């Protein structure tokens, strides 16, 4: 019977020493009795797999199989990555092939504006806008898209107007802003029919002015005082997103109704209709005051808005051109109008009122687009 008791450390050390002395000798020697005993015991006991001898063969086979599967998956992923990068090299971090500006991950969208900001937005990373990334380098990158940026305040009754009347006034004001500044037809220079339909026809002086400005624009009759319009023969809107940010408030109106004050900035990415693919942006800030009067007490049209006041600030549009269209400035083209002579402004700064701080009414320049 073979002794199965464990080998002590002393026995193992003695076995190793005997073996080393035997290997160093010039001629083979008869193993000592201790060495024969240890060897016989090892044969009878058998070494466990992986103990001083490395993994057993079946474990190696299993690992090799897993490695083959892993490299197979990695190979497919690498091949797909090569295809994607060949189609759009700018996806590589740092853009090593200089195909364009590096991608910047958009931060979390800004919460809705509920009060005037205390200052201008922080500088955005210096990036050149492109057709694929028209808001690169703009603080508007984190603004809401289009109509989603026109967030209505919670309606409450005010004066003699019920909560429902206040809700109606806010909704009509939003529709007016959308029709005048976001409707694709309006932006293409077509008649802003949706916006006009919201204004009370019993305000004839206003409608006559707007219709004249749309039909025969000039310095005295300028549709840009209410509508954002581009000449389709000159420029195109890039993509289908216009960035929007602003706020809306309400109070008791002068005509037993609801007065609404709206202050919004719209950022339009544009390119030339022909030729260069250069992308720039025009920034339009609009401030309007409207009222939904009480038709039971005043001669007004139910469900229509009376426009009391309108102000605008146009950023990156040629000065002193009165053809009814915004004319963005591109690096590749010369200005369509005279050089600006007024003060430099940040068109993204919503902390000041429109026109606040101007020394004159002269056309100024913008600090960024």
Question: In words, what does this structure look like?
Answer:
- With 369 residues, the chain is of the alpha+beta class.
- The chain contains 7 helices and 8 strands; from the N terminus they run αααβααααβββββββ.
- Strands 1, 2, 3, 4, 5 and 6 form a 6-stranded antiparallel sheet that branches. Strands 7-8 form a two-stranded parallel sheet.
- Strand 4 (258-272) and strand 5 (279-292) form a beta hairpin.
- Helix 1 (9-24) packs across helix 2 (33-45).
- Residues 23-30, 44-61 and 82-105 have low confidence and may be disordered.
Summary keywords:
alpha+beta; 6-stranded antiparallel β-sheet; 8 strands; globular
Mean pLDDT score: 80
Helix/strand-derived class?
A: alpha+beta
Large-scale geometry: globular
Number of helices: 7
In total, how many beta strands? 8
- Assign a percent range to the helix content: 25-40%
Topology (SSEs and partners):
Elements: H1 9-24, H2 33-45, H3 57-87, E1 144-145, H4 163-181, H5 184-187, H6 193-196, H7 204-215, E2 235-237, E3 243-252, E4 258-272, E5 279-292, E6 306-315, E7 344-345, E8 365-366
Parallel strand pairs: 7-8
Antiparallel strand pairs: 1-3, 2-4, 3-4, 4-5, 5-6
What is the structure about, briefly put?
The protein has 369 residues and is of the alpha+beta class. The protein is built from seven helices and eight strands, in the order H-H-H-E-H-H-H-H-E-E-E-E-E-E-E.
């Amino acid at each position: 019977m073979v002794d199965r008791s464990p080998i002590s450390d002393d026995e193992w050390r003695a076995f190793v020493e005997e073996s080393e002395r035997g290997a160093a000798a010039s001629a083979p020697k008869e193993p000592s009795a201790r060495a024969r005993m240890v060897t016989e015991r090892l044969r009878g006991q058998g070494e466990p797999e992986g103990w001083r001898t490395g993994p057993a063969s079946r474990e190696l086979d299993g690992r090799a199989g897993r490695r083959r599967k892993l490299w197979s998956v990695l190979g497919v992923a690498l091949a797909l990555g090569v295809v994607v990068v060949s189609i759009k090299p700018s996806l590589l971090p740092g853009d090593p092939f200089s195909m364009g500006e590096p991608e910047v991950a958009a931060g979390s969208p800004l919460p809705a504006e509920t009060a005037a900001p205390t200052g201008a937005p922080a500088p955005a990373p210096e990036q050149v806008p492109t057709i694929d990334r028209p808001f690169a380098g703009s603080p508007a990158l984190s603004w809401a898209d289009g109509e989603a940026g026109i967030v209505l305040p919670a309606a409450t009754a005010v004066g003699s107007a019920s909560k429902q009347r206040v809700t109606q006034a806010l909704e009509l004001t939003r529709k007016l802003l959308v029709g005048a500044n976001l409707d694709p037809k309006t932006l293409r220079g077509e008649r802003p029919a949706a916006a006009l339909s919201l204004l009370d026809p019993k305000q004839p002086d206003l409608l006559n002015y707007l219709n004249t400005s749309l039909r025969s624009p000039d310095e005295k009759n300028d549709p840009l005082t209410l509508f954002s319009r581009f000449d389709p023969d000159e420029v195109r809107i890039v993509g289908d997103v216009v960035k929007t940010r602003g706020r809306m408030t309400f109070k008791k109106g002068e005509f037993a109704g609801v007065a609404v004050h709206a202050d919004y900035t719209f950022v339009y990415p544009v390119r030339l209709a022909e030729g260069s693919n250069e992308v720039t942006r025009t920034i339009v800030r609009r401030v309007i005051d409207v009222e939904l009067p009480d038709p039971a007490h005043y001669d007004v049209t139910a469900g229509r808005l009376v426009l009391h006041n309108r102000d605008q600030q146009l950023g990156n549009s040629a000065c002193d051109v009165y053809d009814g269209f915004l004319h963005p400035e591109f690096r590749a083209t010369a200005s369509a109008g005279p050089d600006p002579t007024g003060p430099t402004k940040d068109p993204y700064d919503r902390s000041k009122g429109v026109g606040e701080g101007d020394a004159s009414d002269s056309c100024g320049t913008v600090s960024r687009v």
